[in-house]
Amino acid sequence: MNGFLRPDTDASVFGSVHMGYVAVQSNRLPDWRRFGAEAIGMHVDEVDRNALRMRLDEHTCRFLIERGSAEDVTAVGWHIDDHETFDRIIARVTDRGVPVVEGTPEEAALRGVERLWRFPGPKGIAQEIFTDPISTPEPLRMLSSGWVTGEAGMGHVAITSRVPEALRDYYHTVFDSRLTDYIDENISGLKLKARFLRVNERHHSIAIASIRGIKIDPIRTRVQHINIQSATLDDMLAAFGRVTDLGFRMQWSVGQHTNDRELSFYCVTPSDFELEVGWNPVVIGPELESTWEPTTYQGFSIWGHTTVGETVLDKFAQFRQAVRTYNTPEITVPQLAGGLSR
């Protein structure tokens, strides 16, 4: 790939991996434009009639919305610090017989990167890795004063799964993810367990939720939510007000989480998965990393995060979705999901 010597696949890549962008397929581009720019307060560029890009910082792309019928996240892009680490990850994937393909120059340009390589991920979400994001000197035009990215990446992705151990193993195998903590929660009589995985200083870049004892998934979309982090509390609260004022659906009101202490709200995107806009989560820097021990928290929130406007029809739709998934195998990548102690 990028080097002549075979990389040491056992050397850890932890700390060199950062969530870089999210790719979404949707036929609701006008709604996404209004949602991203006017409600959340991001910078939005119209690439052409079939694609939008959203910026949070100097990177030319943090969200790519391409025209299509999926109404879902199709890929997550991971920024890798250097070519040696990049080669190490590629070797891990190919050594286990998982196909890796290079993205086309057009795909790379749309995502705002020089080059990218893609391989299969859990629940059909492609994992794309790159080393060189494209930055732009063009000033940000957005309602928010700023977003937290940098070493922590652009945010996190949360996934519901019927086989959570396979997802945890996958991200450990590929990115040397570390378990940060657990949350146990009772929702409508069902016991929900969430695992939170970190790949850098962000408290978690991947969250995996499952219903204990029953292999069902009530969520239609591949991701349950994507998180981005406001630079200030005022920015987060202002976005909450705009989402409500503009008529977009609010899923969970402002609240504070038990584990990462982040203040946040959850709203529903035009493609029906949720976007969490948060502020001030715990950062696991070097001084905490060496002594961190996973803890199990009871309940997702210290306060707030109450359901907003959920109806009986919403509950019924989730029930129907759960029934549909019961006998349908969940997409996993078994070659990359074995061998980690639970």
Please provide a written account of the structure.
The chain is built from seven helices and 18 strands. The radius of gyration is 19 Å and the shape is globular. The two termini are 33 Å apart. A hairpin with a 2-residue loop joins strand 10 and strand 11 (190-198). With 342 residues, the protein is an alpha+beta fold.
Tally of separate helices: 7
* Rg estimate, integer Å: 19 Å
The total count of strands amounts to 18
Beta percentage is 25-35%
* Sheet with most strands: 10 strands, mixed
Order of the strands making up the biggest sheet: 17-10-11-12-9-13-16-15-14-18
The N- and C-terminal alpha carbons lie at a distance of 33 Å
| Shape assignment | globular
Helix content: 10-25%
- Residue windows where pLDDT falls under 50 for at least 5 positions: none
- Return the average pLDDT rounded to an integer: 93
Order of helices and strands: EHEEEEHEHEEEHEEEEHEEEHEEH
SSE-based structural type? alpha+beta
List keywords for this structure.
342 residues; alpha+beta; ten-stranded mixed sheet; eight-stranded mixed sheet; 18 strands
